[in-house]
Amino acid sequence: MQECLFATPTMMEWWISRISEKLAPDVSLLQKVLDIVRAAGMPANLIKRAEYLLRRGMTLNNPKINFNRAKAHGKPIDMSRDLPSQLRELVKTYPLGAGVQAEEAPVDKDGSSRAP
């Protein structure tokens, strides 16, 4: 491994929201299907199973992330230093949900970065 980054969910919100937008039509369709089967009187245990199966089918398998853009939002991990202590420092400095202000790289319509 040559480079490694630390990033909280807030630091990665630009990417997480992009994935959520891609899944939004499927989430809407799922809700419509569940409303129909509930109205038709399907038993709750079958509705729960159907919802589980439908949610499994609407995931994105291995969505890509632009590493240069991730670098602009995350914090680099020094691979030559003690990793456990370094991670403890990062988690203490950037607790879950904390972000880092980064200069935005220009982004194409598909969400990929045009950074050099």
Overview of this structure, please?
With about 120 residues, the chain is mostly helical. The chain has one domain. It is about 50% helix and about 5% strand. It contains 4 helices and 2 strands; from the N terminus they run βαααβα. The chain has helices at about 15-40, 45-55, 65-75, 85-95; strands at about 5, 75. Strands 1-2 form a two-stranded antiparallel sheet. α1 (about 15-40) packs antiparallel against α2 (about 45-55). The longest helix is centred in the N-terminal third of the chain and has 27 residues, at about 15-40. The two termini are about 20 Å apart. Mean pLDDT is about 85; it is low at about 100-115.
Summarize the structure in short.
The protein has 116 residues and is mainly alpha-helical.
Name the descriptors:
116 residues; mainly alpha; 4 helices; 5% strand
Question: Averaging pLDDT over every residue, what do you get?
Answer: 83
Q: Which spans have pLDDT < 50 for at least 5 consecutive residues?
A: 102-116
Basic shape: elongated
* Secondary-structure element order, N to C: EHHHEH
Quickly give the structural class. mainly alpha
What is the helix fraction of residues, given as a range? 40-55%
How many β-strand runs? 2
Our count of domains comes out at 1
Q: Span between N and C termini? A: 21 Å
- What percentage of amino acids are in beta strands? 5-15%
- Count of separate DSSP helical elements: 4
Largest sheet: 2 strands, antiparallel
Q: What is the C-alpha radius of gyration, as a whole number of Å?
A: 20 Å
Strand order of the largest sheet: 1-2
